[in-house]
Amino acid sequence: MIIIVLLISISLLIALVFLGIFWWTVKSGQYDDVVTPSMRMLFEDGPKDKKADSKPTKS
Amino acid sequence: METITQTDLCCYHCGQPCAETLWLDDKPFCCTGCRTVYEILSENDLCTYYTLDKSPGVRQTETDTSVYACLDDPSVRSRFLEFDSANFARARFVIPAIHCVSCIWLLENLRKLEPGILRSEVNYAHKSVVIDFNPSRVSLSQIAQRAATLGYAPQINLDAGTSKPKGANQQLILKLTVAAFCFGNVMLFSFPEYLGLDAADLALQEVFSWLNLALSIPVFFYSGSDYLRSAVTAFTQRRINIDVPIALGLIALMARSTWDIVTGTGPGYFDSLTGLVFFLLVGRWFQGKTYESLAFDRDFKSYFPLAVERADGQDWRPVVVHEIREGDTIRIRNGEIIPADSRLLDDKALIDYSFVTGESAPVEARAGDLVYAGGRLAGVPVRMTVVRKIAQSYLTSLWNNQVFQKDTKDYRSVMDKIATRFTWAVVIIAVGTAIAWSMKDASQVWLNVTAVLIVACPCALALTAPFTYGNMMRVFGRAGFYLKNAHVIERMAKTNAIVFDKTGTVTHGKEKVTFIGVLAEDELLWVKNLAACSTHPLSRIVYNSIAGSQPIKVDKFVEFEGQGIEGTVRDHKVRMGSAEFTGADPVSKQGTTVFVSIDGIVRGYFAIGTSIRPGIADMIRRLGEKCKGLVSGDSAAGGTMMKDIFPAEADLRFAQSPQDKLDYVRDLQAQGQVVTMVGDGLNDAGALRQCDVGIAVTDDTGVFTPASDGIIKGDMMRHLDTFFNLSNSAVKILYAGFVISFLYNVVALSLAVSGHLTPLHAAILMPLSSISVVAFSTIAVRLAGSRKLGAYIKTNAV
To answer: Which ranges of B381-484 does DSSP label H, i.e. alpha helix?
Structure first.
């Protein structure tokens, strides 16, 4: 029986470590803005050619 | 050139139809402002802005960027800075114009335009941008000006940069996480108990019990601390809210379970305790999520400018409005609001009090006249001496009127009323149980009384309201109607008198001006400059409708009362006015017309019409008796049109000052009516606050919106009645949810009173009741919403 108690305490400790990590991510502000990054990923890196981005004008 | 409105061409920058098209690089622009932004961006290789989103720009209004000079004043500066040193500073600006991907992209690439900026980061949800910059290379005011020239004017007012709504939400997430973690583990450790254990495993069960106790301590003291604290506060104020029975239940659960484990008499109810706190926090989190996107906490001071230029010897220095004292000389420029009652020093000034009185014609003030706070200056800059300090002036006294502090005190929500009865009922049942068991078996009294308190805990009850109202607010929000908080739904459901404002509410906010005839571009500018000389409302309307800003001198200006105006521009005699005045044939047409003649030849006319929003008449008919009337700041000119729309018994009032509107609402309330006022929220701000539900109508979501209980998009006005119907449904759904949770309570209480409540029963009943109530209210609200508003939710989806 003692082995179950041992295993449970180990698993509980591991779970506590994860809880601690999550706590840290919240505290460090990683969930403060969950909207903007999803839009920011649409940006392309580097400069673009001026003419390449002309869009057809509505008429 | 023909200048009949071309609706088929849309501005490349802002996407609005071009009234007068300007071309650059084969792209149409509606005004020079938009074209300038395009030029700046294309010079700096920032045209990705236009590829990320279609026509992402904000229409350029002629804002005076010199107001940002005040940002270099140390006391103003510190309001916006989060960090400051010689070579590095971090500022936070709120920019209401942020609305799409392109906005984020451009603002985060500001450093390419302004080398002193090191980095900028946008928070889309809060519409704010954090800018790291080098103060030795670029000043805060330059950054603000740069952003403003691109159409992203930072919000500069008394309240800006003061609040940072950060910590509370983080706290809630942490509490929720702890509760979730402990709840999950406690459930696991309780499983053996649910399934039944052999005598051989009793030692194991004891270990589990102690682990449960250990895991429940943070849940009780940390996650549940808000409920305990709120209950204590309610107690000290001698009021009972829903948190009191919850706290009572939590304490009973904790005490009873700890007792059981310490004495070794049972496994305790820790699974119920942790589950309860977890579900309650989920409800609270959901509520917070719903409110998050609605930043409503502005008060009226937000309208005031933050700083004003004050004479300092020979110089003009920007000072914070608070610091203005009696006797100071201040300078006000075109379009600025006068911050305090003052005496005019210059010869002449045109002041537009529409903001205060609702009257759209500007008033002319002469040297020595008293001008009042809240007026907006039109025309050349003027100097004035402050005669009354800002806090005492008329406008602030109107706004500080205690009625504007909305009645949170005397208004008690359905929830609190039920909580009071509920708590008393629980106390009575508990006392009854105690008496009954003390006669039967005294040793069981303590056990059964705690059992009653445990299952009576109104977890499901507390979840019903946030989920019902929260979901309803989301449905409303997706259809273009944004509410300040959940109480508004209850008050809307109770409303039996609806009062409308006219301009911007029943009619479109802006006059529709079309020129019919032929005028060259420079001739149009002549007309504009001639119109600028007159203060007549029609002249103002014509003036505003013509694009361009080139000042041309007008000679021999004469105003013929009731007929028109005349003047010589560039040696041409220009006349504007009635048909007879200009010598034209009268046109039989609805609405107002202004004819133009140049050198005696009639060139055409401006047709000016205020158009009623489509569908309003039907909506008002559907509202039926609830529609009480109309209060308008305008003259009775458009009265006949209004009579056609409103029912015969409705009360139509014209030429009402803001104070009249406020009094009217107050009269209705004195008659016991629950009043909803719908207005544009500017000159009827006082009335919007006084009434039970104040709804502001807006056509431009980018425009910053005044204090009110709700904001409705202009094109959804015709469905106002549907929103009222849905509010009624929401209240009904809430009551149905209460009934469900009461049913659970009846079952659980009968078990508890009769002494049959085991931890297993509690563990099943309590989460089940919460989940079923939440599921019921969510589904019911969604169904009601999609049945009545389905089509609009889709079209308005963000």
So the answer is: 394-400, 414-440, 445-456, 459-478
Report how far Cα B535 is from the mean position of its chain's Cα atoms: 34
Reduced to 3 states, what is the DSSP secondary structure of residue B413?
A: coil
Inter-chain contact A36–B124, Cβ cutoff 8 Å?
yes
d(CA B619, CA B786): 19
Question: What is the rounded distance in angstroms from the CA atom of residue B405 to the CA atom of residue B595?
Answer: 49
Alpha-carbon separation of residue B555 from B533, B537, B705 (angstroms): 10, 21, 41
CA distances from B419 to B82, B426, B431, B457 (A): 43, 10, 18, 11
Give the pLDDT band (50/70/90) at residue A20.
very high
Distance CA B696, CA B482 (A): 10
The two most distant CA atoms of chain A are separated, in Å, by 80
Strands B675-679 and B693-698: parallel
Contact B449, B476 (CB under 8 A): no
Q: Which amino acid is at B557?
A: F
Q: How many CA atoms lie within 13 A of B162 on its CB side?
A: 11
First-to-final CA distance of chain B: 40
- Best B105, B171, B202, B798 residue to mutate vs chain A (most A CBs within 10 Å): B105
The top-scoring range by mean pLDDT among A4-13, B65-74, B394-403, B404-413 is: A4-13
Degrees to nearest 5, angle at CA B519 with B518 and B523: 170
Q: Are B363 and B379 in contact (CB under 8 A)?
A: no
Contact B211 A12 (CB under 8 A): yes
| Structure tokens given for B115 | 């080398």
Instruction: Give the three-class secondary structure for A39.
Output: helix
Q: Which residues of A touch B173 (CB under 8 A)?
A: 26, 31
Q: How far apart are CA A38 and CA B380, in angstroms?
A: 47
- Beta bridge partner(s), residue B284: none
| ipTM score | 0.76
Residue B47 and residue B142: Cα distance in Å, rounded? 22
What pLDDT does B200 receive?
66
Asked if A50 is an interface residue toward chain B (Cβ–Cβ < 8 A), one would say yes
Residue B548 amino acid letter: G
Length of chain B, in residues: 798
> Could you give the CA distance from residue B534 to residue B544 in angstroms, rounded to a whole number?
12
Give the three-class secondary structure for B315. strand
The alpha-helical segments, DSSP class H, found in B219-312 are 225-236, 243-263, 270-292
Q: What is the C-alpha separation between B269 and B209, in angstroms, rounded?
A: 10
Residue of A36, A55, A58 with shortest CB distance to B122: A36
Chain A residues with beta carbon closer than 8 angstroms to that of B52: 42-43
pLDDT at B181 over 90: yes
Which string of b and e fits B197-206 if b means at least 16 CB within 10 Å?
A: eeeeeeebbe
Name the token pair of B265.
């008499």
Q: Bigger pLDDT: B734 or B480?
A: B734
Q: What is the DSSP letter of B334?
A: T
Average predicted confidence (pLDDT) for chain B: 77
Q: CA separation (Å) from B789 to B598, B614, B724, B780, B781?
A: 53, 18, 12, 14, 11
Helix/strand/coil percentages in chain B, nearest 5: 50, 20, 30
User: Do residues B375 and B381 touch, judged by C-beta distance below 8 A?
Assistant: no
Edge-first strand listing for the sheet containing B128-133? B81-84, B89-94, B128-133, B117-123
Cβ contact A36–B166 (<8 Å): no
> Taking CA B113 as the corner, what is the angle to CA B107 and CA B117, rounded to the nearest 5 degrees?
70
Report the alpha-carbon distance of residue B355 to residue B758 in Å, rounded: 66
B336 and B374 Cβ atoms separated by less than 8 Å: no
How many Å apart are CA A27 and CA A21, to the nearest integer? 10
Give the DSSP H or E segment for B108.
Answer: helix B101-108
